[in-house]
Design brief:
The structure holds two protein chains of two kinds. Chain A is an all-alpha fold. Helices cover 74% and strands 1% of the residues of chain A. In chain A, a hairpin with a 4-residue loop joins strand 1 and strand 2. Chain A is elongated, with a radius of gyration of 25 Å. In chain B, helix 4 runs antiparallel to helix 10 and helix 10 packs antiparallel against helix 13. Helices cover 52% and strands 13% of the residues of chain B. Chain B folds into two domains: 72 residues, no CATH class; 208 residues, MetI-like (MetI-like fold), CATH 1.10.3720. A three-stranded antiparallel sheet of chain B has the order 3-4-7, with no helix packed on it. Chain B has a two-stranded antiparallel ribbon with strand order 1-2. Chain B has a two-stranded antiparallel ribbon with strand order 5-6. By secondary structure, chain B is an alpha+beta fold. Classes of the chains: A mainly alpha, B alpha+beta. At the A-B interface, helix 1, helix 6, helix 7, helix 11 and helix 12 of A face helix 5, helix 6, helix 10, helix 12 and helix 13 of B.
């Protein structure tokens, strides 16, 4: 019951945060002077195409771009009636992309769940790599295992993501015959889901997952190692050793459990960085996620498309953080529900 | 000290009755804090080496133009995508001093690329303190003397040349001027904001604390890069490179402060209950004075260590933005701008040296990490 209350509390906080984020996003995408349509109108006027101007003017009133900025915001979110009535983000209307002359939902379409997929794979990768390596590095601390792990970790932190992506693509293709670019073989695009398509996606996922996950895994591994070392120096470990517990059980039974909590909590901190990373890596590698559309939208001031993508990315992060908070409470009963005491 | 026949050691100095028995045995027991910190830091070899490396890199910045044989936008139209040349000392068993072999380019019309032939029969010694293109020493002294330059009729591309025939080595030196300072400006902004918000949140508590905390949570839960992208897309494209550079570094700083503010806040929460704070308050010190004079100096050093650790993120951020074409733009030279050229697989495969700017990035980021780790470990001289 207490957990349910905490979950509801956490959910409401998330919604409030999302609301503030929407204001921030709207302000940011409106920061550049002018908008897509007024730029277009000016250009059409300069070249003397009258009918184009009329269409652009029509779109301007249709999408309420001629109103004051706060009204535009309310209409965009769906908290005020626009020219088409109450029809904004809340009501499921993602807006219109001027650049592609199509609804935003049509453009992003498949990209949404592919974005989720790429990020899920990266989180999974972080856990699968960081957990065994971190424990191993702590158990064999100050040996070559530890040093190698630390070295690889530092290198992972220091190499710019996008470069790692390019190098891995090149060498992965050269030596392991991994495919270059994209998230699936071109013939599967727009096809219904089939076993071959899933297979193709999985093979294409290898490099991006590795690239997005590396820096997160490195950070996580270092943290886990430090936590494990703290736990291993405590008296109860000595007691267990004195009583004759085997080395693997000694590690797994208590210290690992204690060191595990920050491990779950950290994913909440890592997630923003990883989602950012996935946007960048998608642009470089040409993955069909929403990353590339964000870049083009930002460059051409296609404000509704950019705004939607930013909102979606933020939503993804917020949901991830919320889930990690809830998992943490389930795992560690010592964490108090509800408001934090001082 | 003298060793007695029975193996004991005896101090030969005469016994003086005035000697203070309570005086510390080691003369440096009351050494100032920074001496202790320095002594401990010296033992952290990796941190020390990184510190020296960074110091040298930053000292190099104002004289980059002198060290670089070329100026950043100087084009050698006959040498596009020239491979790196090596500087040799010995030619056919005899010592000639530092020299290069001249190269000539021929167009390979089959594969549409340039191929370079090295003429190994004619060693051409490098010139030192020679005249070249004009640059500004320390940013304002015009000068045209370079440390070394190519002999007439040859080139000296230590790390190759790029798409337009510009020297990669020289451009890396010039690029360092922007890429390395971006982190410093960004961290200054983030430092100021972080300390300001963190300290008022921690010191006053209550509603202020609640409000600032929510702000921190919101900013921390947002993916940074898309925000960077959006903010830098808002920079007008007609601005000059210098103002774009400042805006970019300020943007990087604005989104970085929450982490620092959080650390400051939690420290303040515990420190504000100390007696000396109450004493200062009772003597009538205003909150501003208590924060600046009594609280902040307590953990300034820790803040500096954690700031050192967040500079790399800014350097990588600038690189990523410029790489995507939303950060610094072409006439400006930074490592990210240079990597923009190496964006496709073809250039990595055929002209791998265009990706060389990644090496200084990796080294600098690693060095900042090690330096920060070393600083953090040695700031508590009494521990461990």
């Amino acid at each position: 019951m207490m957990f349910l209350r905490y979950a509801v509390y956490r959910f409401i906080t998330m919604l409030l945060t999302l609301w503030v984020v929407s204001i921030l996003v709207f302000v940011i995408i409106n920061l550049p002077p002018g908008d897509y349509l007024s730029n277009q109108i000016a250009e059409l006027r300069a070249t003397g195409q009258a009918e184009g101007v009329a269409k652009a003017e029509f779109l301007r009133t249709e999408y309420a771009l001629d109103r004051p900025i706060w009204e535009q915001y309310l209409i965009w979110v769906g908290m005020a009636p626009g020219p088409q009535g109450w029809y904004g983000l809340i009501q499921g209307n993602f807006g219109w992309s001027f650049e592609f002359d199509r609804p935003v939902s049509e453009i992003v379409g498949d990209a949404l769940w592919l974005t989720v997929l790429v990020n899920l794979a990266a989180v999974l990768f972080v856990y699968l790599v960081a957990l065994p390596l971190g424990v191993l590095a702590a158990a064999k601390s100050e040996t070559w295992v530890d040093y190698t792990a630390a070295f690889v970790g530092y290198l992972g932190l220091a190499t710019p993501n996008f470069l790692l992506a390019l190098m891995l693509f090149y060498y992965g293709n050269k030596y392991f015959n991994l495919p270059i670019g994209g998230l699936m073989a071109p013939e599967f695009e727009g096809e219904p889901l089939s076993l071959e398509k899933v297979n193709s996606i999985l093979i294409h996922l290898i490099v991006p997952t590795f690239v997005i996950g590396t820096s997160g895994a490195a950070a996580m591994m270092q943290r886990l190692r430090a936590n494990m070392l703290d736990e291993l120096s405590k008296p109860y470990v000595e007691t267990a050793k004195a009583k004759g517990l085997g080395p693997s059980k000694l590690l797994a039974k208590y210290p690992l459990r204690m060191a595990f909590n920050p491990f779950v909590a950290d994913i909440g901190n890592l997630l923003p960085a990883m989602v950012s990373g996935s946007v960048l890596v998608s642009v470089v590698l040409g993955l069909q996620t929403i990353g590339p559309s964000l870049l083009t939208a930002l460059k051409s001031q296609d404000q509704f498309l950019a705004g939607f993508v930013l909102m979606f990315v933020a939503l993804l992060t917020l949901i991830g953080t919320m889930v990690s908070d809830m998992l943490l409470v389930l795992l560690d009963p010592r964490i108090r529900y509800g408001a934090r005491g001082s | 000290m003298k060793k007695l026949p029975d193996g004991r050691w005896v101090d030969e100095a005469p016994w003086s009755d005035d000697a203070d028995l309570s005086a510390p045995e080691r003369s440096d027991m009351d050494a100032p804090n920074w001496v202790l910190v320095w002594r401990k830091f010296k033992r952290h070899k990796l941190g020390l080496i990184s510190g020296i490396f960074l110091l040298l890199s930053y000292l190099m910045l104002p004289v980059a133009g002198f060290i670089a044989p070329y100026t950043p936008n100087q084009r050698s139209a006959d040498y596009l995508y020239a491979p790196p040349q090596s500087i040799n000392l010995w030619h056919e068993g005899s010592f000639v001093g530092p020299y290069v072999y001249p190269t000539t380019a021929t167009a390979d019309l089959q594969n549409f690329r340039w191929t370079y032939q090295t003429d190994t029969s004619r060693p051409m010694p490098l010139q030192f303190f020679c005249e070249g293109n004009q640059y500004n020493l320390f940013g304002f002294i015009p000068s045209d003397t370079h440390l070394f330059c190519a002999p007439d009729g040859a080139t000296v591309f230590l790390w190759g040349s790029d798409r337009l025939g510009r020297d990669v080595f020289s451009r890396i030196l010039y690029g360092a001027q922007l890429s390395l300072t971006v982190g410093l400006i960004g961290i200054t902004v983030s430092f100021a904001l972080g300390i300001f918000f963190g300290s008022i949140a921690g010191y006053f508590g209550g509603k202020t604390d609640w409000f600032i905390n929510r702000m921190i949570e919101i900013l921390r839960s947002l993916p940074e890069l898309p925000l960077w992208l959006a903010l830098s897309a808002a920079v007008p494209s007609n601005w000059g490179p210098v103002s774009v550079f400042f805006i970019i570094s300020i943007i990087l700083g604005i989104l970085d402060w929450p982490g620092l503010a959080r650390a400051v806040r939690s420290k303040f929460l515990s420190l504000r209950e100390e007696e000396y704070v109450r004493a200062a308050e009772m003597m009538g010190a205003k909150p501003g004075r208590v924060i600046r004079r009594h609280l902040l100096p307590n953990f300034m050093s820790h803040l500096i260590a954690s700031a050192t650790l967040s500079i790399p993120a800014m350097i990588l951020g600038e690189t990523a933005l410029s790489f995507l074409g939303l950060g610094l733009r072409a006439p400006a030279v930074s490592w990210g701008v240079m990597l923009n050229d190496a964006q496709n697989l073809a250039s990595i495969e055929i002209y791998p040296w265009t990706a060389i700017p990644m090496l200084p990035i990796i080294f600098v980021v690693l060095a900042f990490n090690f330096l920060g780790d070393g600083l953090r470990a040695s700031l508590d001289p009494y521990k461990g």
